[in-house]
TrEMBL record:
Protein name: Integrase catalytic domain-containing protein
GO molecular function, one term: nucleic acid binding
Record domain Integrase catalytic: where: 39-220
Signal peptide positions on this chain: none
Transmembrane segments: none
Species of origin: Iconisemion striatum
Gene3D superfamilies per UniProt: Ribonuclease H-like superfamily/Ribonuclease H (3.30.420.10)
GO biological process entries: DNA integration
Length: 282
């Protein structure tokens, strides 16, 4: 209407649509998203965990967890697998730093089995220690993934697609996948670390401009001592965040090659081919 030079209040438009086309208006209202009121009153009451597969065609999986009250990222890592053991190690690393949450919300994926077992063993059964539901309704972590896809994943996805379109990368070749993991996994996690720092320190307009980390810290300090998070929980060794291929370790993949890591990728593929060729002679 504005494009036609007609200015009219929104309520008038809604009122006329209700009179002129009540049937279609009713059908449209049935498809509207019903916004739910999110109610978590203290830190560590609920953690939301999930995995993100935007870079899965090249073997990369993001694992993440968010505190429901403060929106603070408790753990966030890019890995080259989606195993339950990996999710558990990352979760336990967050437990060591932030304490054990009362409940965890996740989907029914097999990668959450060990986390669910860990929560039930430490918090008890039949109390919602691990709550299972559809991933699209896990709103705190889904909101985070939207920002991750925009800020982190989109750059690497466009880069890998460019490499495939220019025949630099063959995602069906195991040597190429091994090289791309060695070169780009540290680079992705460097971006992940920077994203996590910025997210946990950015101000929230609806929370008096406090940051997620400030909200979490303030909320924990205001709790009675008996309600503060458990820290004496038996956990395994933390996840190895520096997964470098020893055979390709002669070049640091984090060094700038002036071409978004493509030159490093070329060198590593060539090195792997020469190693494979020499091993065939023996």
């Amino acid at each position: 209407l504005r494009g036609r030079g007609v200015r009219v209040q929104r309520w008038r438009v809604r009122e006329r649509l209700r009179i002129i086309d009540p049937v279609r208006r009713a059908l449209r209202s049935r498809r509207t998203i019903q916004h739910r009121v999110y109610d978590v009153s203290v830190p560590n009451q609920v953690w939301h965990i999930d995995t993100n597969h935007k870079l899965n065609p090249w073997g990369f999986v993001f694992h993440g967890g968010v505190d429901g009250f403060s929106r603070c990222i408790t753990y966030f890592r890019c890995c080259t697998d989606n195993r339950a053991s990996t999710s558990l190690q990352l979760f336990q690393g967050a437990v060591e730093q932030y304490g054990l949450p009362h409940r965890v919300r996740g989907d029914a994926g097999s990668e959450n089995i060990d986390v669910a077992r860990f929560m039930i063993e430490n918090r008890g059964a039949n109390r919602g220690s691990f709550m299972v539901g559809r991933s699209v309704h896990n709103q705190r972590i889904e909101r985070l993934w939207g920002e991750v896809n925009r800020v982190v994943s989109s750059y690497f996805k466009d880069l890998f697609l460019f490499m495939e379109n220019t025949v630099i990368l063959d995602s069906t070749n195991p040597l190429h996948i091994r090289a791309i993991h060695h070169v780009y996994l540290p680079r992705i996690n460097r971006s992940v670390d920077e994203f996590r720092r910025q997210w946990n320190h950015h101000s929230l307009r609806t929370m008096e401009n406090m940051s997620p980390l400030q909200l979490w810290t303030t909320g924990i300090l205001q709790l009675p001592h008996c309600q503060r998070p458990l820290t004496n929980v038996l956990v395994q060794h933390g996840y190895n965040t520096h997964q470098w291929d020893a055979e390709l370790g002669q070049i640091n993949p984090l060094h700038d090659d002036g071409n978004h890591g493509i030159e490093h990728f070329y060198l590593h593929v060539t090195s792997l081919k020469e190693t494979l060729k020499s091993s065939q002679y023996f």
